[in-house]
């Protein structure tokens, strides 16, 4: 009996030892954590599952199965970054698992890491050469690596290998569309539906393609089939709403959106709310926005939409209060910060708007919307370079974003960068073909570029499509005037002024015609109407000032310009005109003071600082002018006028001739057709003892303006120095005939005297 008891005890002890050994075995422990994690996932306890999978990985960091399960748990929890990281790690640890390689490859394609994605696609195909998913991924990696022929070939092989699978055909359609082969793309998408007529994704892919190909009727038919079979299919209803919107059937778009709202699709709630507000059903839109407020994830956008409704309705204090209250809870909300900046801009509170826009970019430097709004705010504050930089940053973050392209096309035109402005205008029109601003900027750029035929055609089309907008008629008038069709331009400008008496383009163009035809009374009447309509419009005031000077009323011109500056202290055009007015009246000190005041407000105002240098020169204070110009050219390489003037002053003094030549060459590159700049370049060459090169530059200036005595004098000096006696006689004689008292006249006469007895 004792022996039996002892044996049982021994058996229990051995069993306990085995259990304890099992509990301490790392392989068993990590497997248990894995199974517990899977059980939690099945029960919807994602957070608990993540803990278990991590516990397994603490035991064995190379446990590929745990990595894969953790990736799926992260994906379910919304941790996209963690999911991507773990899927890729799992794929490296499980090279023979096709589904793991496919998942990693798919994510890497989405991240545009095509080389790495192709590695995983190849591993999947090595494990299963018939994997359609792997072939599709490999095709997309080839497309990403610019091998479109290889990508198409890969998909064609996949479609042959699996004729009943729609996916290779759908991928092939996408590739053909990306290559611009629209007929081939449509055929592939239709084959996808034929391969699997019951496939909803295949029909939706075809429907989306037809929509993008502007075949709305056919798209509606295909998507309608999906909705008929499954009325609550969210992607189909969203796509149908897009079809209706593209066809301008706004009322019809309500039905699919309402179906989505009924299944609590919050994106549809937002879109339907926007639709109601856009069509004047503001109260219904407000109700939907208020519904969004109850959703934590959508609360900020709901507050933004409601504030926008209040702001447009004139309840501005309510709008600001709602935005500020939400910002109190989420102070780094880019959406609300950008909205507040835009509201402040509308209210003319430019400085505050700029401050808030900078807060938005500080909260998220990678937000393209924040950078775009910053660019608009910088532009409104007349910070041209900063505005351009912000819009360029927005485009680097979101290359297809229309807003920055539209703004860049406008700003670069103002900055004199016509070629780039035209490129952005063309890109903007492609990105937003329905945007009127994009088309307007394109016409402006074409006019500056001198492409009058294209500008006229586009402007004429706009006048027909938007007949009651003054801007389109004014641009059409400018195009007609540029090709000397004065009757046509007059008619276009008159129509624009009938629609808006203060349209700047129409007013300036119409005044130029009146003045050329000696009709000052008609011009005066138009200026008076414009000022009555828009007494505080800076552009109108500047035009009125320019006309007043031509009309012999400098006092009126001064009044208009002072008012323009009072309204907008950063209006550099007004400052420059006022300074020019003072210079013409020999009131140089007053002109300089006005410009210095502008520079205090805007230290980066290169034009105003250059004008100060010009006034210093006009006052005979060359040393001060040199200081002004030198400071400008050290700060920027694009200040052509300052570079030109500084080069001339140095060359004229015989000082820093190498630097003077460098400056003159820089100015010539930026203003190749300017005769003054070419004269400066020639003078620098002449002073450096290079008369042949000098003569070539002076010849360009004389060809441009043969009546300029200084150009002729300089050309004569260069000819004389290079031994071209007859040419020297002709040029110097012409110079003295044009201006007998020109500076250098004594030297010219001495040279002519020395040349008298030469053959």
- Structure class: mainly alpha
Main sheet: strands, sense, barrel: none
> What fraction of residues sit in β-strands?
under 5%
Overall geometric form: elongated
Descriptive notes:
With 759 residues, this protein is mainly alpha-helical. It has 44 helices and no strands. The protein is elongated, with a radius of gyration of 37 Å. Mean pLDDT is 86; it is low at 1-23.
Outline of this structure?
The protein is mainly alpha-helical and 759 residues long.
Key phrases:
759 residues; mainly alpha; 44 helices; 0% strand; disordered N terminus; single chain
Show the helix and strand layout.
Layout: H1 2-24, H2 26-42, H3 46-59, H4 64-77, H5 80-93, H6 98-110, H7 114-127, H8 132-144, H9 148-161, H10 166-178, H11 182-195, H12 200-212, H13 216-229, H14 234-246, H15 250-262, H16 266-278, H17 282-293, H18 299-312, H19 316-329, H20 334-346, H21 350-363, H22 368-380, H23 384-397, H24 402-414, H25 418-431, H26 436-449, H27 452-465, H28 470-482, H29 486-499, H30 504-516, H31 520-533, H32 538-550, H33 554-567, H34 572-584, H35 588-601, H36 606-618, H37 622-635, H38 640-653, H39 657-670, H40 675-687, H41 691-704, H42 709-721, H43 725-738, H44 745-755
